[in-house]
Design brief:
This protein has 143 residues and is mainly alpha-helical. It has a single domain, classed as Up-down Bundle (Glutathione S-transferase Yfyf (Class Pi), Chain A, domain 2), CATH 1.20.1050. 58% of the residues lie in helices and 7% in strands. It is built from 6 helices and 2 strands. It has a two-stranded parallel ribbon with strand order 1-2. Strand 1, helix 1 and strand 2 form a beta-alpha-beta unit. It is globular and about 50 Å long. The two termini are 27 Å apart.
Length: 143
């Protein structure tokens, strides 16, 4: 049997969803990442002290990170224009990765609902039973 080690809200969410989609038996073991290993632009906006000394420099790193992350989200939104799924008309393993970024945007206080195509896609994702099951199971680890 496969064992999936995952951390709620991390990129492992995409692998967790992909594994669930296969229907293969597996055991999910949660771990909590202490290092917060996330996309660089998001990490800059959340942990600027790792990249600069002093309040002014950290504020600049944070602002640059926020702008970069928001630009990434806008680019993803544009990729959904006229498509149901990120790669076109069919769901692929790429879709769960985009869900990770959407979740980070919500957690970071970004106005994700302004991204209409991305938000509509997220709603389609959450209608998939496997996606809903995995997202709920990962949220339960944190409560």
């Amino acid at each position: 049997m496969l064992t999936l080690y995952f951390s709620p809200g991390a990129c492992s969410l995409a692998s967790h969803i992909g594994l669930e989609e296969t229907g293969a038996p597996y055991e999910a073991k949660p771990i909590l990442l202490a290092k917060q290993q996330q996309h660089p632009s998001y990490q800059h906006s959340r942990r600027p002290e790792r990249f600069a000394d002093g309040e002014a420099a950290q504020a600049a790193v944070k602002e640059t990170g926020r702008k970069s992350f928001w630009a990434n989200c806008q680019e993803i939104d544009s990729m959904f224009q006229g498509k149901d799924w990120i790669m076109g008309s069919q769901y692929t393993v790429v879709d769960p990765y985009a869900l990770v970024f959407y979740g980070w945007g919500v957690a970071g206080g970004f106005p994700m609902k302004e991204l209409s195509a991305y938000t509509a896609w997220r709603e389609r994702m959450m209608q998939r039973p496997t996606v809903r099951k995995v997202v709920e199971s990962e949220q339960n680890v944190l409560t």
